[in-house]
Amino acid sequence: MRDKMSNNCRILYVSYNGLLEEIVPSQVVPYLRELTKRGYRFTLLTFEKKEKLNAVGKNGVKKLKNELKQIGVDWHWLRYHKRAPLFATSFDVLVGTVYVLFLVITGKIDIIHARSIVPAAMSLVAKLFGAKFIFDTRGLLAEEYVGGGHWKEGELKYRIVKFFEKFCLKLADTIVVLTQQHYKYLLNLSWLKNKSRDLPIEVIPCCVDLSRFRYDFPRANMIKGKENMQDNFIFTYLGKIGKHYMFKEMIDFVKDALGILPNAKFMILTQSDKQMVLDIASNNDIDHSKLIIKKPTFDEIPSLVSTASAGIFFINPYKKFGSSPIKLGEFLSCGIPVIINSGIGDTEGLVKENRVGAVVGGFDKTSYTSAFCELLGLMKEGESLSKRCRKTVEDHLSLDLGVRKYSSVYERVQGCTP
After folding, report:
1. In this structure, is residue 18 part of a structural domain?
2. Is the same domain home to 353 and 331?
3. d(CA 34, CA 378)
4. For residue 251, what are the domain limits?
5. Contact 311/238 with Cβ under 8 angstroms?
6. Residue 5 forms part of a structural domain
């Protein structure tokens, strides 16, 4: 390893999500772009799904690699495997470990930044070669799979993840969490405390590129005209439809709101199957004419979000204190207030303290009506509310804030300065 105080700090960023999916372009690349401007040098390792690779083709992959090279990021990728999940992930960890070691040795890496537990597991061995290790937890993976109905607490997969999570937390040179709630949880773990040093934890929520997500008035009006929804109150959901996301309860909320505002519509921006969305709506007796379902491209999302009257998302709250929903900042940065449920990371406190939306206390008609009436009261403030939404992101969830925090983490871990 080069001298730890050397400039041009070399960082290997490892993500089990692929660059060809939505998360990495939204929640990894913007950080790397801004951090390279500060002088940090990144190698990015991702795991790509076969169907995504086939969709863009070799030329598309080459184009993406060149685009990242233009901003100073050297992109490498491995195949993601999903058949027989436990064995597939174990195989990916094994192959990933070998490749991480190759990149650390050949690239003279100073720091490995592992995004979530699987990349962390494959990065640990690199500490033997002098690289520092940042465990960017992204919440509690095992508990979230239980809450989403995919796993059962205590089964083999759950116990394996918890074992590696504990191991990674103990060996990390710095731990990054998304919420203050997760930070407090870690502080209370007796086995994690080390009397020889302060517990190295940094809270960095999911942040938003304010230059990308902003209220696009002309574009929003054009879309509203095209969709014939100029006079409608538009609830908007952005993201996947699955067990983690309580879509049935969102449908129920919109149904209840229709009793107050009959002109309301529900716009769903998702990559999930359209028929599945329609089936859930039919099963819950909501007229399909009240739905607008779109499968937006990455570039279309900000403009479509700008057409919303209110963003809505309900997430299964089972042990979700470590969660920081990306969609919260994306709505607010466009000046759009939100309707959320309680028990999700720091979101309830942020929404209530800044008066940028309403929090549903329970999944019943009384709670829905109360929250919607509260939201309508806030919306009477008009432009003042929109500005407050935007200001909340500037103060708490901006990309610039996240970049500054990550830069300070790198500097603290190894004295790496740009």
Report:
1. yes
2. yes
3. 35
4. 217-396
5. yes
6. no
Do residues 165 and 34 both lie within one domain? Answer: yes
User: Which tokens is 75 given?
Assistant: 């992109």
Do 185 and 192 form a contact (C-beta atoms < 8 A)? Answer: no
What digits encode the pLDDT tens for the residues 248-292? Answer: 999 999 999 999 999 999 999 999 889 989 998 888 889 899 999
Domain count, the chain: 2
Per-residue pLDDT tens digits for 3-51: 333 457 999 999 999 999 989 999 999 999 999 999 999 999 999 999 9
Do 323 and 402 belong together in one domain?
Answer: no
Is residue 191 situated within a structural domain?
yes
Instruction: Tell whether 305 is covered by a domain.
Output: yes
Q: Based on C-alpha coordinates, what's the Rg of the chain?
A: 22
pTM over 0.85: yes
Q: How many C-beta atoms lie closer than 10 Å to residue 101's C-beta?
A: 18
Token code pair at residue 356: 């940028």
**Residues with Cβ within 8 Å of residue 96, at least 6 apart in sequence:** 14, 45, 47, 78, 118, 119, 122
Q: Which helix (H) or strand (E) holds 202?
A: strand 201-203
Tokens standing for 163?
């074992």
